[in-house]
Amino acid sequence: MSEIAELFYPAIRWDATHGYEGERAGIEEALKLGVGGFILFGGPSEHVATLTEDLHSRSKVQLLIGSDLERGAGQQFAGQTALPPLAAVSSLQDLQSIRRAAAVTAREARELGINWIYAPDCDLDIEPNNPIIGTRSFGGDPEQVGEYAAAWIDACQAEGVLACAKHFPGHGRTTADSHKELPRVETDAETLRETDLVPFRAAIERGVASVMSAHVAFPALDPSGAPGTLSQPILTRLLRDEMQFTGLVVTDALIMEGVLAGGEAEAVVRALDAGCDCLLYPSNVAKSEEAVQRAIDENRLDAEKVHQSIERRRRWARWAALSRETNRPVRDESGWSTQLAEQVVHMLRGSLPPLEQPWNLVIVDDDIGGPYPAPSRDPLISTLTSGGIQLAMNGGGMDPKATIVALFGDIRAWKGRPGYSTNAKEAVRKALDGASTSDRLIVQFSHPRLAGEIPGDAPILCAWGGEAVMQRAAARVLLRELAANVAARSTQAAG
To answer: Does the predicted TM-score (pTM) go above 0.90?
Structure first.
């Protein structure tokens, strides 16, 4: 076992058919090598807790086990609290909601054996053509994003879980997806310092445990055109020296094309040389570890610098281990999260029509692209039907009095574009133009600004994202409105 292995954090993914068993060989090899931790994707809560307990108990080193939980632990793990996107929560302009969202997420993560959350997103939502940030951001105002990110970090780390400010020095201006290619941001250095870096400064001042690098080129900060993850001017001179960050620097996932031009082995060597401490989601730990050792032997890498990264990792792993031993009760926050999700659903255009039954529900799904399927749309359907709605799908089986178009167009990795496709917009137009009903409504499960792309003048209800929590929230808002309309008509009739 080599100390170098502590720099690596391979992925463990839940499979609906085989659970974690398909990952067993990789887990055994990683533990034997002595990796510093893992990143987890998916799984029922009880299986996640069993897995992490096994990992923590068998590892020869104290582990940092992380997960992408920007939208609550329920974003990844069934049975945990799911929350709206960060943009939706920030739209309420309520710091207490942001703090509570972070605290709930951290408590549930810690209970599952996860001690590192790759959140919050400190990127600015300032580029409408950005295909990967959008609703993941707290917004477009640098000072406000910094304030909200700092509040999130403070509440998360108060629960004994490491937070992570990402994606340094900012992914908000990109028009390409770093999962698929290397984006370039041509903005001048002064503008970047006065805007994009502001939330990261706030995060550092609040004592954030870690910062995640961006697989994005910033020629104004590093004329070589290297992605931030592989850039010494960006990670050492800017982040470490100028901004005086002393915590962990972690790469974004090493399976992403934005960092793999020279292959994974070369990427990990260059990332460490640039100033990274932790190498996230390697596909082959053993080969990458050998590449690091070879680079040290050939004096391409400074052995002392690598040792400092290992020691920095160990300090935060000890901090997380001590925090895990502290008894902090986990509260049931399902009622609050349900209320929060409903609170962020709002009208974007027009007002809600009476929506008399039965309804014709037309689903237009533009959440395509990438290796992973879009979420099921059953939460929307089942919540409506269990609430008593007589529902036809695509006009079949009954004479509807209202037409509801559920339009899904989320930000998704590997999708490669924001906005709606031509086919999706045409499907919406056909559904509404062909409707025999006077009551028409579009429920948009995506960023509010995308309403400008939707043809026609039908009212639009914004539900921010297509995850199950927002589908159910939108359905409950519609049910509540329908009940109010029925009650009003009954009152008028009685009068």
So the answer is: yes
